[in-house]
Amino acid sequence: MAQNLAKEYDVVVCGAGPAGLNAAYTLCSISDGQCRVAILDKKEPWREPVSCAEAVSKKALEQFWPSNEAWIRQHLDGVYFTSPDGTKVDFTQDDCGYILNRALFHREMAENVEKKGAFCHFSAECKSLFRDAEGFWNVDVCVDGVTSSVRAPVIVDATGPGAKLTQGVPLLEALEAGDTDLEPAIFAIVENVEHNPRHIELLFGNKYFPGGYGWVFPRDNNTVNIGLVNGRKFLRTHSPRAILQQFLAEHYPSAVVKSIHGGAIACGQSLKPLAVAGFFKSGDAASCVNPISRSGIVEALDSGHIVGECAWKWLNANSTTEKESIEAETYARWMKVQGNTHLRLCKAKLAFSSIQDCHFDKAAHKLARIPQKKRTLFRIFFTVLCTSPSLLWKMRSFVFVR
Ligand SMILES: Cc1cc2nc3c(=O)[nH]c(=O)nc-3n(C[C@H](O)[C@H](O)[C@H](O)COP(=O)(O)OP(=O)(O)OC[C@H]3O[C@@H](n4cnc5c(N)ncnc54)[C@H](O)[C@@H]3O)c2cc1C
């Protein structure tokens, strides 16, 4: 990928995860190469490890990027839901998703972004920014220890969870409002564990997974990804690494741990805007993650697509009023496709995190007695709900009122 950063672009995209890559791809595509786009990342987006369990819904992913066997690790046909006492409920459905090789997926995206005409620099760290008198954003970019500046009327911040670019920039205070609810997540790449390669397993229970869940996801050949994400308020009592190690020792004593990786998940979808004065936020940087499933790959692609389209419109707008209305439209579009659902899920999550282990177990025992073909996701959800009376009460507005 090219190395010489010009002084000025129409759009500088900071961060080349799925959000940034899709924003850049969309901008280059809809402008037919007219938009001068630079996409910067502090590391190559295909550099391993990518801190992720890499599960996606096939249907959702394919709305944004055509599937390619080259970056699919596994095709999935089901989920085991495992209750605290170890009861496994098997939910099977053809083509329910993939385990990706995200490094290869990012590489394909980045190559296509470059082919479409974007300038890609993947050892460029965006440090800080300010807006100059002409209304251009100036980003300080550090490459090999040397800092230089690049300017553009539009910036896309796709720097992932805990994004810091807007911090201390008075004009962007509105983007900083609200709680990003950054949750720590951790996983181990493990060998010597028997696992159905076409199923993912989701585990529940307050001993290891308070306010969250654990997972066992198939990877390549004989490796699996075993991890957990817990509610942020349990961080002190349940150190993610210690809990993961304890879980592995107790449940997979013969597992061979090849490596352990951590990351953060920005679950706190809030009511803050997504764009101000030509500065757009996308993906995890804008907390676009599903707060219950904690999935964020397709969400990042979706928000990157919206931001790419709106940023191009913004560049072609003639007045401040028109630009402000496009900024508002960015938020409205996101809220319509996913944001409103996420806000509702944020509330449901509070109720879910209060489910007692005995209720999970009771629901699992009930579900295990239902013939497998009749176990729909809806039935699973309702069985859990009805087994926990306090949950049913807390969730009444979701269940009975729309
Ligand atoms: C342990 C774990 C497991 C997960 N499992 C799943 C899963 O199974 N399915 C799912 O859908 N989601 C999962 N997620 C969530 C998913 O990984 C994210 O939601 C998704 O990656 C968000 O994409 P993004 O482009 O917004 O951000 P990122 O993928 O985080 O990309 C941000 C990019 O910005 C770059 N960057 C950061 N700061 C700077 C800077 N200052 N200058 C330049 N570049 C910068 C980073 O290097 C990175 O490449 C998981 C997350 C974690 C932590």
Describe the structure.
The protein has 402 residues and is α/β, with parallel strands linked by helices. It folds into two domains: 11-48 and 103-179 and 272-350, FAD/NAD(P)-binding domain, CATH 3.50.50; 61-100 and 182-266, D-Amino Acid Oxidase, subunit A, domain 2 (D-Amino Acid Oxidase, Chain A, domain 2). It is 33% helix and 27% strand. It is built from eleven helices and 17 strands. The strands form three sheets. An eight-stranded mixed β-sheet has the order 3-5-4-12-13-14-11-15. It has a six-stranded mixed β-sheet with strand order 6-2-1-10-17-16. Strands 7-8-9 form a three-stranded antiparallel β-sheet, with no helix packed on it. A hairpin with a 5-residue loop joins strand 7 and strand 8 (137-143). The longest helix has 33 residues, at 320-352. Flavin-adenine dinucleotide binds at residues 14-20, 40-43, 45, 51-56, 125-126, 158-160, 185, 187, 227, 263-265, 283-285, 289, 295-297, 300.
Report a brief summary of the structure:
This protein is an alpha/beta fold.
How many strands, which pairing sense, and closed or not: the largest β-sheet? 8 strands, mixed
Strands, count: 17
Briefly note the structural class of the backbone: alpha/beta
What molecules are bound to this protein?
A: flavin-adenine dinucleotide
| Relative helix content | 25-40%
Which topology of the largest domain does CATH recognise? FAD/NAD(P)-binding domain
Question: What's the CATH class label of the largest domain?
Answer: Alpha Beta
Unreliable spans: 398-402
Compute the number of structural domains.
2
Q: What is the fourth-level CATH superfamily of the largest domain? A: FAD/NAD(P)-binding domain
- Tell me, rounded to a whole number, the average pLDDT: 90
What proportion of the residues form beta strands (DSSP E)?
A: 25-35%
Shape: globular
Radius of gyration, CA atoms, in whole angstroms? 22 Å
Label the CATH architecture of the largest domain: 3-Layer(bba) Sandwich
Spatial strand arrangement across the major sheet: 3-5-4-12-13-14-11-15
Order of helices and strands: EHEEHEEHEEEEEHEEEEHEEEHHHHHH
